Amino acid sequence: MSHVIVAGGGIGGLSTAIALIRRGHEVTVLERTTQLTAIGAGIGLQCNALRDLHLCDEILAAGMPIERYEYVDTLGRAITGWPQGEIRRKLGQPTVVAHRAELQAALLAALPRDVIRLGARCTGYHDNGTGIAVAIEGGATVYGDLLVGADGLRSVVREQLLGDEPPRYAGWITWRGIAELSVAEFPLGLARQSLGRGRSFGTWHIGEGRIYWVATLRMAEGADDDPAIRKQRVLAAFGGLHDPVGEVIRATPADAILSDEIYDRPPGERMELGARRAARRRGPSDDAGDRPGRRPGDHRRRRTRRRACHRGRPARPVRPRGGVGGLRGAPHRPDHRHHQRGLVQQRHAPLGTA
User: Fold this and answer.
1) What angle is formed at CA 36 by the lines to CA 108 and CA 18, rounded to 5 degrees?
2) pLDDT score of 102 more than 70
3) What is the pTM of this model?
4) pLDDT (tens digit, 9 = 90+) per residue, 221-237?
5) By the 8 A CB rule, do 43 and 61 touch?
6) Among 203, 227, 265, 278, which residue carries the largest CB count within 10 Å?
7) DSSP string of 61-82?
C-alpha cells in the first residue's frame, strides 16, 4: 500500500482520492481553503465517470440524466444529434448533469473525514529518490510515496515539474448561470448546444426545475470586468437566439451569473515524476511498453514467431492492437522512422480549446 498525497480538494482531487482509496492506498488531500464551500454552476458526468466513481445513485439523486443531445444553429435549426438515452441503456450507466456543489457534497460523503486537510496550501515538493516531501505554507511537511497535482490551472505542482510559463489566453470568455424555469421548448432530458460564428450557448437540465446554461463568446482578455452590466452584456450577445435562450437568461439572477476567461497551456513533454524509479520495480517484459515502438507483450510475440520458423513452418503474421500509425490490424513493421514520426506528431499536436 502506498501513501498518495493529492494537492487540491476540488472535484478532480476528491475523485482521485476516492479511486485511490478503493484501490487500497492511503490518501491525504491537501486543500488550500479553510472550508469547502459550494461554488460554481453545473457539470456533466459521462457514463464511464459514474461507473468508476461507484456513486451512480448519489449523483443521479443530485442531477438529471440526458436522454437526447442535439446541436442547432442560432436560429434553432438542427445540425446533428443523438439519443444519449440509448447509449445509457446499452452501457448500463447514464450521462448526468448536476450542480457542482451537489456533486462535491456526494464526493465528500464518500471519503473518510480524516483524508482532507483544510488550510494546507502546497508550496512545492522534493523528490529524494525514495519518496516525496510536500511543503505546506507555514512550514509543515507531508511525506508520501506519490504526489498528484490537482491544484488547478495555476498548479504549483505542475509549475515545479515542468517549469511552466503562465497560462495563455484562448480568446474566449464564458458566462454560466442557473435559471429556475420550465419551458415547453426545452423538455426534460434534452441537452442542447446552439452554435454560431464566434459564440455558442448550451443548456442542460440539472433537476428540481433548474436549467444550467453556458455561453461562450470571442472577446479580448480583461474585457468583461464589470459585474453590474454582465447580464445586459449576455442578453445583448445571445438574447436574439432561438427560444428559449433569451427567456433562460432573463430568468437568471444577475448576481448569480459567473464569468470566466478561458486559458490553456501547451502540452507538456512529460507529466510524471519518478517514472524511471517505477520502471526499475517492474520486470523487463512490463518495461517494454515504455520504449518507442515497443508494446507490453512484444517480446512474447517475437519469441513465438522465432519458434515457429525454427520448427520449419512459416510464422503466422502478427497483428498488434494498434498497428503502425494507429491502423487496427496492420502488420507489425518495427521501422524506427515510423515511430519517430509518430512521436513528433504527438509531441507537437495543438491543444484543443474546451
Assistant:
1) 25
2) yes
3) 0.72
4) 988 767 889 999 999 99
5) no
6) 203
7) HHEEE-SEEEEEETT--EEEEE
